[in-house]
Amino acid sequence: MLNVELSRRSKSTLMIVTDIFLITLSLWLAFTLRFGVWFWPNKDQVWLFAAAPILALPIFIKFGFYKTVVRFIGRKAMLESLQATGLLVLLWVLTIATFLPYYLDIKITFPRFISSEIMFPRSIPILFWITLLLTIGGSRQLAKLILLTPDNKPTSKPIRNALIFGAGMGGIELATSLSHKNEVNIL
Predict the structure, then answer these.
(1) What is the torsional sign of CA 27, 32, 35, 38?
(2) What is the mean pLDDT of residues 95-112?
């Protein structure tokens, strides 16, 4: 197992910085995939890229993204990731459709590569959500994989069998936690 000697606060800060980068990258990838060319935002379109991380941080904090121990992320955390990213994309679309044009007087258009300008492409939120799921969820799974690399040291302790019965969510969390240790075999 990789031993990372960082304080809890440092790990959370690292995760926040990584998430801000991945959110911006995901949005850029969504535009690039939609237009089929390398997308570089103009001065008005930069607001789209600024709004996404600003909206994401409170949502991710509310869903407990920065309190979770990455080593023990399970299916529940991935489901919460699905919900949080979906909520982020919905709020992002509402923000760019209402707040930016009506309150900040920013009209965002995109050049059509064939003829005149078009409004915001409708496929962008779907592509943004998909790339966000892949980058945010994938980064946590990759960190889990790196942090849970088993040591090659032989253990002298015998492996014990354990049976968890009727514990609900507590049992699922216990099973997830014990499955990461080499000392217990869950039946």
Answers:
(1) positive
(2) 64
In tens, the pLDDT along 38-56 reads: 888 777 778 788 889 999 9
The whole-number pLDDT of residue 108 equals: 60
Name the residue among 111, 62, 66 with its Cα closest to residue 88.
62
Q: What is the DSSP string of 62-120?
A: HTTTTTS-GGG--HHHHHHHHHHHHHHHHHHHHIIIIIHHHHS-----B--SSSS-B--
DSSP 134: I
Provide the residue type at 18 as one letter.
Answer: T
User: Does the pLDDT value for residue 94 go beyond 70?
Assistant: yes
- As a whole number of angstroms, the distance between CA 8 and CA 11 comes to 5
Q: Model confidence over 114-135: pLDDT tens digits?
A: 444 445 677 889 999 999 999 9
Token couple for 37: 């060319």
CB atoms within 10 A of CB 143: 19
Average pLDDT, the chain: 78
* Residues 113, 38: Cα–Cα separation, whole Å: 13
